[in-house]
Write a structure and sequence with these properties.
mainly alpha, 279 residues, elongated, two-stranded antiparallel ribbon, single chain
Length: 279
């Protein structure tokens, strides 16, 4: 296990009380930690990267442990003071402690949830900035999900459009991001050029032509996602204008059916993918 003793867990969750009986104290959280590790493996880093988590003092393990600790604690909080009896469930108590109010417990749950989101984002940002782990991370579910776009993470998204939600809310927005790309951007710049840009972003080798339009595309994608379509349209049009002015620099677009329809005037104005850009 990534976290296998209560002292390590307390490093990430300071509210945990560590008694002299470390083994029994750890048993309270062991089941939740195992489930949290499965969450980390299945939803974030994938099995290949999970299998090489064998450096106890590495930055990668530290980031992963933070995610596991907060995920486990978030799941454990509602059950920590419950005990099953023959007559149903009871609440354990200590005469020397005053039970926390429901509001305080809910505040702890909310704070832990926010911190979990921050830890996941920290881990993802670390992975993006550490090429040594990319080969093992690329087969994961989350890498595929995040890399199928012009924007890779929440922090980057917030550079292009306002978004007050946390990491979990951002993950839930991924279908909207995909829809914006496929239905609102690619009908203008072409699916072929869009695919080329995404592949180059994944490989970290965006060519000079695509560097000129990537900011406009990111602004468009983010603003379509939050339903600010008028702003997004303006950025798509800026990208479109640049592509048309330097069309030889964009062979993927030049070979697309969208461009062929444009130059041959085959599409009616009503059906044109450039209609909202004034063409």
């Amino acid at each position: 296990m990534i976290i296998n003793d209560v002292l390590t867990l307390r490093k990430y969750i300071p509210t945990i009380i560590v008694s002299d009986d470390h083994e029994n104290a750890f048993e309270r959280y062991e089941t939740y930690l195992k489930k949290a590790e499965q969450f980390l493996k299945r939803e974030i880093i994938g099995s290949f990267l999970f299998d090489i988590l064998d450096e106890p003092n590495s930055d990668l393990v530290d980031h992963c442990a933070a995610v596991v600790a907060h995920k486990a604690y978030l799941e454990a909080i509602p059950f920590l003071d419950l005990v099953e009896t023959s007559n149903g469930f009871g609440v354990t108590s200590n005469a020397n402690l005053t039970p926390a109010s429901t509001a305080r417990v809910q505040a702890l749950i909310k704070a832990t949830e926010i911190r979990l989101g921050e830890c996941i984002e920290d881990l993802l940002e670390y992975l993006e900035e550490t090429p040594d782990y990319h080969d093992e991370w690329k087969p994961s579910k989350t890498y595929s999900l995040l890399s199928d776009s012009y924007i890779m993470n929440l922090r980057e998204f917030r550079n292009y459009a306002p978004f007050e939600g946390g990491r979990m809310e951002f993950v839930k927005k991924r279908p909207d991001i995909l829809k914006a790309r496929m239905l609102k951007i690619e009908p203008v710049i072409s699916k072929e050029l869009s695919k080329e840009i995404i592949e180059q972003l994944r490989d970290g080798d965006l060519n000079e032509a695509n560097k000129e339009i990537i900011e406009d595309l990111r602004f468009a994608l983010a603003n379509y996602t939050i339903n600010a379509d008028l702003i997004a349209d303006s950025f798509v049009c800026r990208a479109r204008d640049y592509i048309l002015s330097k069309v030889d620099s964009f062979p993927s677009f030049k070979a697309s059916s969208i461009y062929q329809n444009y130059i041959n005037r085959k599409a009616s104005e009503q059906d044109s993918p450039f209609l909202r850009c004034g063409i």
